From TrEMBL:
Domain of life: Bacteria
Predominant localisation class: membrane
UniProt protein name: Cytochrome c biogenesis protein ResB
Regions crossing the membrane: 51-75, 152-171, 429-448
Membrane topology: Multi-pass membrane protein
Source lineage: Bacteria, Bacillati, Actinomycetota, Actinomycetes, Pseudonocardiales
Subcellular location: Membrane
Coiled-coil segments on the chain, per record: none
Key words, A-Z: Cytochrome c-type biogenesis, Membrane, Transmembrane, Transmembrane helix
């Protein structure tokens, strides 16, 4: 057990870097920023595995050693406990007066009557009656064996919790996706490609996910007068496996801390934001409308930034397509306020929406072979002169910008997007059951007292009055808990009651 406690301390100590340093699985962008800010220290920490603490070999080694230590501790203790449960209570000590708790009396009852009354009083205790060579009758009684049972339940449940957590990490996953309110397509749990970010378990490759679909019909956010969020509610439709076959949709509400529980995972509401909608009318009269989610910069006023990108229609030549791409970038304010031409947002709800945009034309870098954020343009294209700013203007809904080549860009309106997280943890139920057993076992081991009591009924010496018996009672607590003295006093008074004391 000492080894297990040391390993448990080491496990807690080893987990500290995971809380203090960004981790690749949960904050890969912050890890990259850490490398930029600390180019000398970051590689050293990376070689030590401190940016992936919970997946490192040394953390797994401590985890496995703790598990082995618990097994090596619990098996012998369980065998010893089973042996003690089958054994009879220990013999009555020869000198009961040496015990911490002791009482003595002479009663007008025979030893047999004293023992019979004592057995009735000690109902619920493990007892054993013996007759000694001098004719004395003794009772050995023990109580509190469930204390060790609670201790064993606590440690076995702790071990089961470790197994359940490991099982969940191996076969579970966690992914995040943005769903546009009112989008009939929604989101389907059909593979990794359907997610914006996906963190699979060690045994999950994304090819055998439980199918289900979710779409957001509408989203409602309410705010207090000071702009503080009051409530968020999304009306969603969903399909599980049977619904997908039948082509039916089920209705549900999705709120913060009130997830949608499906067979293939649990859908949580994480956040929301706005999607400005722009319509581009090209010189040949063709139109393209896009509503791309913009990233929230200020969680109080929901001032957002983003980039909505367009390809020229009907252009098949790659070079011409790359030189004619457009990006509408800038800021969006749900309730706009201006200081000259500078725009900000003063309230998070859609009271007076406006955008402050820069229109970029040229090569967006979509065909460069490297990924780029949907919230911004590739700055290397701007630095290289392949993407240039051709207009800047503040727009309210219905207003438009006219470019030098006749292209018109109109701010049509605003949609809402909802960020959801889909989590699947097959070990969750096991962790819950193990957690309950941990609490029950810990409560039993802390509240139950292990104690023993012995009684010796000795016939009075020859020549004394008949039916007189000397009764001695001794007690011993097997733990350091207080309170047994009071219990022993009450118990001894009952055990010495069969006859009148003299």
């Amino acid at each position: 057990m000492r080894t297990a406690l040391v390993l448990l301390f080491l496990l807690a100590l080893a987990a500290m870097p995971g809380a203090l340093l960004p981790q690749r699985l949960t904050a890969g962008d912050k890890v990259g920023k850490y490398f930029e800010e600390s180019p000398n220290l970051a590689p050293v920490l990376d070689r030590l595995g401190l940016f992936n603490v919970f997946g490192s070999i040394w953390f797994s080694a401590i985890y496995v050693l703790l598990f082995i230590s618990l097994v090596g501790c619990l098996i012998p203790r369980t065998a010893e406990y089973a042996k003690q449960m089958r054994a009879k209570p220990v013999l009555t000590p020869r000198n009961l007066a040496r015990l911490p708790h002791h009482a003595k009396s002479t009663v007008d009852s025979s030893p047999e009557d004293v023992v019979a009354a004592a057995r009735e009083r000690l109902r619920g205790w493990r007892t054993d009656v013996r007759v000694e060579d001098d004719g004395s009758h003794t009772i050995s009684a023990e109580k509190g064996f469930l204390r060790e049972a609670g201790n064993l339940v606590f440690h076995f449940a702790l071990m089961a919790m470790l197994v359940a957590i490991a099982f969940g990490k191996m076969f579970g996953f966690e992914g995040q996706v943005i769903i546009h309110a009112g989008d009939a397509q929604g989101f389907c749990n059909s593979g990794i490609y359907a997610y914006d970010s996906f963190r699979p378990g060690l045994r999950v490759d994304g090819t055998e996910l439980q199918p289900f679909c979710v779409r957001v019909n509408d989203f409602e956010a309410t705010f207090l007068r000071n702009g503080q969020a009051d409530s968020f509610h999304a009306n969603v439709s969903y399909q599980e496996a049977a619904d997908l076959e039948a082509g039916t949709w089920q209705q549900a509400g999705l709120q913060v801390n009130s997830p949608l529980r499906l067979a293939g995972g649990t859908v949580y509401l994480l956040g929301h934001g706005y999607s400005p909608r722009f319509t581009v009318t090209f010189p040949d009269g063709q139109k393209r409308t896009e509503a791309t989610q913009w990233q929230t910069m200020n969680t109080v006023t929901l001032l957002s930034q983003g980039a909505t990108k367009f390809d020229p229609p009907g252009v098949t030549d790659p070079e011409k397509r790359r030189t004619g791409q457009l990006a509408v970038t800038g800021l969006f304010a749900p309730t706009a306020a201006f200081e000259g031409t500078l725009m900000t947002s003063v309230f998070p709800d859609l009271r007076d929406p406006a955008v402050a945009v820069d229109v970029m034309r040229g090569d967006l870098g979509n065909e460069s072979g490297k990924g780029q954020s949907i919230f911004e343009i590739d700055k290397s294209m701007v630095d290289g002169g392949r993407l240039k700013k051709v207009a800047r203007q503040n727009l309210r809904i219905g207003e438009e910008i006219a470019l030098d080549d006749g292209t018109k860009i109109r701010f049509d309106g605003v949609g809402r997007w909802v960020g959801v997280q889909v989590g699947y943890d097959p070990g969750r139920l096991g962790v819950l059951i193990a957690g309950v057993l941990v609490l029950l076992g810990l409560g039993a081991s802390l509240s139950i007292k292990r104690r023993r009591v012995w009684l010796r009924a000795t016939p009075a010496p020859e020549g004394a009055e008949s039916a007189r018996t000397v009764v001695e009672v001794g007690g011993l607590a097997r733990t350091d808990q207080a309170g047994y003295g009071e219990e022993f006093t009450t118990l001894a008074a009952d055990l010495l009651r069969p006859g009148k004391e003299r």
